Amino acid sequence: MFKRPKTSAQKSALQAGTRSKKTTYRQALAGMKRPVVIAFGLSALVNLLMLTSSIYMLQVYDRVLPSRSVETLMGLFVIVGLLFGFLFLFDMLRKRLMSRMAMQFDTDLSVSAFETAMGTQSRPGGDTPGRRAQPVLALNTVRGFLTGPCVIALLDLPFMPIFLVLLFIVHPLLGWITLAGAGVAVLLAFGNWAMTRRATQINGALDGQEAVLRDRALAGTEALQAMGIGPAITQRWHAKRQQALAAGQLGTDLSDTFATASKSFRMFLQSAILSVAALLVIREEISAGMIIASSILSGRALGPIDQLIGQWRGLGRAWQSHKTLSQVLRGTGACDRSASKLPIDAQIDVVRVTKYASGAGSSAARPLLSAIEFSISGGDAVCLLGESGSGKSLLMRVLVDGVVPDAGDIRFGGVTRAQMTPDQIGRKIGYLPQDIAVVPGTVAEFISRLQADGEDDKVVQAATQAGVHRAILALPDGYDTQIGGASDVFLSAGQMQLLGLARAIYGHPKFVILDDPEPRLD
Question: How would residue 8 be classed by pLDDT, with cut points 50, 70 and 90?
Answer without folding.
Answer: very low
